[in-house]
Design goal:
This protein is mainly alpha-helical. It has 4 helices and no strands.
């Protein structure tokens, strides 16, 4: 259960950043969180002019097949790196 505790702590730490990460880093953070908590993306890719929703969907879809535990660890690693750069 230590991984889940570390993941939850990383989620809390992600909200403590004092500077805004890049859009790419934020998308990666979002996608890893979704993969870790929900698994592979489901549903239809958003259409139209909702570019933010499309970007989020695409970022999450790139992680298809990655296990929840691996996604949690990658999320933890990313938050650690972000804290070094943006805290």
């Amino acid at each position: 259960m230590a991984l889940i505790d570390d993941f939850n702590a990383a989620v809390a730490r992600s909200k403590e950043l004092t500077k805004r990460p890049t859009n790419e880093e934020l998308l990666n953070l979002y996608a890893l969180f979704k993969q870790a908590t929900e698994g592979d993306v489901t549903g239809e890719r958003p259409g139209g002019f909702d570019f933010k929703a499309i970007a989020k969907f695409d970022a999450w879809a790139l992680l298809k097949g990655i296990g929840k535990e691996q996604a949690m660890q990658q999320y933890i690693n990313l938050v650690t790196n972000l804290h070094q750069n943006y805290a």
